[in-house]
Amino acid sequence: MAATGKDQDGAADALALLRAEHEQVSRMFAQCANLRGLEDAEETIAELVDDLCDALIIHTMLEEELFYPALRAAFGDDELIDDAELEHAGARELISQLEAMYPGDEHFDATLAVLAEEFAHHVAQEETEMFEGARAAGLDLVELGHRLALRRAQLDDDMAAPPTSFDGAEPHDGRRTPPRAPD
């Protein structure tokens, strides 16, 4: 395995894939912070937060479906993994709250800031304790990386699929829209 986290075929190992996702989400949080307070940025922030929430949902699913079970089997630190899963539950709750808000709403900025802080804490713990544990346990990180990449492609396809209609109602893409001014 090269120092880049890739095997001879150029396939990224699990830790390199997860680290790249952490960096992508961190950049998205930074973009949101840079746009805050700018005039006429609400629509851009709303779109960015939608993308950020989608990325976090996919990321947590990958970790919970593949990475954490592999760690549990390999080194058995259930407490560390249980804590990470609880952090994911908290993130899902904050994502749910954000999806019901629009930039400019009373608690939007605070909710986004809390999610960013919790994400940064989660990443710091994961990239030290969990990643080191995965290496020390001798996990096949390349094989796990292949599985993560395949599942990510499936989830990306699912997220890109057009929404289905429900009870004859027009399908909605799930993107938030700004509140309408009163008539």
From TrEMBL:
Residues 155-183 are annotated as: Disordered. Signal peptide: none annotated. Residues 14-132 form the Hemerythrin-like domain. The lineage of its organism: Bacteria, Pseudomonadati, Pseudomonadota, Betaproteobacteria, Burkholderiales. This is Hemerythrin domain-containing protein. CDD domains: Hr-like. Residues 169-183 have a biased composition (Basic and acidic residues). Pfam families: Hemerythrin. It comes from Massilia litorea.
